[in-house]
Amino acid sequence: MLTKRYCNIKEVSAYTSLPVKTLYDWASQGRIPSIKIGRRVLFDLNDIDQILAKMKRDTGVYEKVVSKYSVEI
59: pLDDT confidence band, cut at 50, 70 and 90? Predict the structure, then answer.
């Protein structure tokens, strides 16, 4: 695990297991914050952790839809 705060795209890819292309796409779309210094793009791991935490699926309550009625399992 990396102990530094700002990482390049390859390090963030290894940290998150996301492809480099996906990270570049998300950064250009503004989905993840990045810092551009010249040609270098850096990412704050604190921001990455917060974004991934928001992407987690809710595992609290599952619903099964039967016909038009919703039933909790």
Answer: confident
For the chain, which residues make up each domain, given as ranges? 6-72
CA 72/CA 32 separation, integer angstroms: 35
Return the ∠ at Cα 47 (arms to 41 and 52), rounded to 5°. Answer: 110
Asked if 16 and 27 count as a contact pair (C-beta separation under 8 A), the reply is: no
* pTM, rounded to two decimals: 0.70
Residues 6+ apart with CB under 8 A from 45: 2, 4, 5, 6, 7, 12, 15
Q: How far apart are CA 9 and CA 15, in angstroms?
A: 10
